[in-house]
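thread from #wetlab-drylab

HS: before we spend reagent money on co-crystallization trials with tryptophan, can we at least see a predicted complex? here's what I'd submit
DV: go for it
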Amino acid sequence: MKRLFSGVKPTGDLHLGNYLGAIRQWINLQDDYEPIFCIVDYHSITSQYNPKKLPDFVFKCACNYLAAGLDPEKSLITVQSKIPEHTELTWILNCITPVSWLERVPTFKEKAAKQSGNVNMGLLDYPALMTADIILYKAEAVPVGEDQLPHIELAREIVRKFNGVFGQLFPEPKGIIGKVGRIKGLDGADKMGKSLNNCIFLYETKDQIWTKLSKAVTDPARIRKSDPGDPEVCNIYALHKLLSDTETQYEVANGCRTASIGCVDCKRRLNDSLDSEIAPIREKYLELLTKKEYVGSILSEGSRKAAEIAAGTMDQVRDLIGFSYEFLE
Ligand code: AMP
Ligand code: TRP
């Protein structure tokens, strides 16, 4: 079976964008691949963060993974910093990766603009670390949200360069994106993101979500209930398409176009659909929060097994790059 790798940064609670854009498709892929799902803490420290909060974010990320349906019998769930080979391999990749390749990555330019007082080396090197994450396990499939595709493209280039310089070792990874694309935030403008204050978090209750949904932006041209709207420009309808059954989708789209249903009703129906999908996740999540030892043992076991694979790959890498000193013990 082919190996699959993906990860999320432990920078805060997981939101609907993470779930619909990435994690929901991970669940279904678990049967067709040998998956490794990592909590990528080395990536999370490239932006300002609070070291005191990090352990809690890592733990909550693991609880979210499990609550959403990752099955430790099928998937290895790992913590990146528990497997030092991730950073070791990154250094080796650094030495074959032209700086110009990293400088042209769109997320680097965006992040550098956003955190102009903290354009650190790690931020520039972020995609090299991501490449190491993937190829350390010779993973071929990388399910991510569409914003990550430039990173996967760069990973493929780095792999080609490595294989060309040192000899064929790594397969070229491929990104897997569902039909979801980018989930917009409740402001209807930016993508839903932890730092943007436009999120629905997976732990929120139906009432809490309603407070947010009731203020969410819809078709801006639809000012009164009697104005017909265009579902295709409405972010609420975009979410219906991902969360509601086809009958509900048809009814709200039709109701919007003919002005027979108002935005408030349409949002209520979305909240019902959303709740049936995420209420079980929330309940499981809350239960797991009380099971620190159990969750910790899954992470330790996953990281231990992944470290064995990583060690095997690094032996091969060291041989290929000339780090095989027989005169040393
Ligand atoms: P992050 O929270 O940036 O570590 O992202 C973790 C995963 O969630 C990645 O695969 C992202 O592409 C995906 N993701 C995050 N935000 C969104 C969004 N608004 N829409 C779609 N996918 C997203
Ligand atoms: N950069 C990814 C994000 O922000 C997280 C990530 C790190 C990742 N390493 C990875 C995703 C390797 C897939 C494969 O979402």
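DV: The chain is about 55% helix and 5% strand.
HS: ok that's useful, forwarding to the group
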